[in-house]
Automatic annotation (TrEMBL):
Belongs to the THOC5 family. It comes from Ceratitis capitata (Mediterranean fruit fly). Its main location: nucleus. The gene is THOC5. One of its GO terms (biological process) is mRNA export from nucleus. Keywords: Nucleus. It is found in: Nucleus. This is THO complex subunit 5.
Amino acid sequence: MANSLHKNFETLRNIFEEVLKMKNGSGERERADELTEKRKYASLLFVLIKKVNRMVKYSLRSGREDLHREKVRVDSNRLHLQNLLYEVNHLKREIRYCHKFKSQDEDIELVPEDEEKTEDDKTLMPTDMTPLSGHAKHLARLERELNLRKQLSAQCKELLNTKQQVFRDIILKTEKLTSFAPSLRTLLKATRPLQDALQVPMDREWKLQQLVQLLPQPLYLAYMNIHALELAKECDVCVVVVGSEDDVRQLEIAAQTEVVKSNASSDTDELDIGSVAKKRKTHGGNNDLLLDLMQEQRKRILQPHPLEVRFTINNGAKSMEESITVKLRYFKRLGFVSAATVISLSDAEQNYADATLTQDVLKYLHDDDVGDTIPVPGAEYELKHINMTTKECLDHLKSKEYGRPYRWLQKMCCIEIFNDANDTSVVATPTEQPKLQKMIPDLIKSIQQLWNYRLNLIKQIRALVQKHIDLYLKEERLPTTRPACSLVQWTALTYEEYATSAPYNDSELVNGNQLYYRAVVVRGSAKMECLVSISSKFPTESPLWFICIYWNGQHNAMNSAAVKAMEFWTNSLTQAQLQHPLALLATQLVRTMYSFDIFLETEGPLYNPVEYHREKHYIKAFAKRIRARPYRYIEGGTVNTFKQ
């Protein structure tokens, strides 16, 4: 079709050229006829070209339609393939989920397959007696497990009913036994003269616990004396024995075995030592064997008795939440008893009681007995035998939370101790031991008093940390107007921090066994820092306050007479001058805050610009000028007046 169209175009071009030549040539008549023929033929060619053109357009349109149909078919096939690919991926995911599927019955321990089948299993088999598939077999096992559990549930209900019946029988027999007890006590009381004559105290033997009989002698004496106080209700104390009877039996068997081995190997000790020394020489001084032997021997010597005695002292008539428990452990090879404390506080005090308030409470019982030595003769020799010093032994006791070997504790357990802590050559005789009937009640009361003092201190510290200064000051004679300054911080300090912060330090008044705190009081741009040292004899001895004021320089007792007078006014307060037993620290703090206000109000007008004005009433009790500030206050109705 394209060739025909090109051919017609070429023929039409030739006709145009011939017509042009005819018009330019001669013989117009002859050429007119021929020209007419040429024009007719050219017109026919135009018709033919138009026909061919239409045929080309029709062919193009049909081609486009065929192309569109093919594109639609290709798109449909592509979409179908994509749907198939999505379905394949979906099926793969489902297959993975099926592989990862875990049934809930997999955690159930089913009855083994090799056990005999019950009658219910026969009903699960098909009628044609074909073997069960894996899934059907699993379903059968689940059905058998369900039936078995139903049977066990029925048996459990039957056993519970039997248990209730037995419980009712026990209650009935207990009631009968309770009704029989008064008659038995009457009979026992009537036969007491016979028991005394035969020296068979049956009632005392019945009350004695089995664990108590296994206690070593020192702990047994301590237990019986404290238990007697508990029964007599002379002190608010409760004593128990903690430990296992099996451990005691094993310890006795091990001790007997060790004795037998030591007797059997007594003849070969020198040979063994020589062989060990020879091995050390041949192996270049390898002492691993000796170290192992030393560690094993050290472990045996430092091992306490499996049983321990614990006595708990409550806080008088207060709640049982606030108590102190003393644990007594006995070291047979070393020959002494150690004591450790466990503090129980209520939730309110526990949150504000730091470690220094609850540790080593017993070492403050006596000033000369802080548990830093071992006062028992023979203990030092045993420690030298295992190459250990006294300090290392005490550190070991502290790491194991066994406590300290106090001198008063050895006396309470009737253990011989040195006469003098500084003289280790003289050993006390048993006749020098004090009477336990008087000593132990005094010790219990002293520990209870010390615990009450420490608990009162914890409550006062909690009030100051929470900035509840007026909590225990309602009964005291204080000015009605509040101090203008405010307490912003009350924190605990270590002895090293206190020693570096204090302007001066007196070893007789301040030492490492005391408690230290820092109080920060602020008024305007002035700041007062108070370093407080609380003695172990609190509240018998008042806390010692060091005051340092930061305002227009640093003012302390070393460079300011006013601050020295402030410290005297604060430190001169004692518990005997107060009404409430918990008001000592708060009253000292309030005195210091009033003194701080007076210091600023009397020194403020001397500086420009004036920051602090006189807000309190002062009187001058002397005719001549004196340098003392009016720190003391007197009652004057609704107006508080301060004087020198």
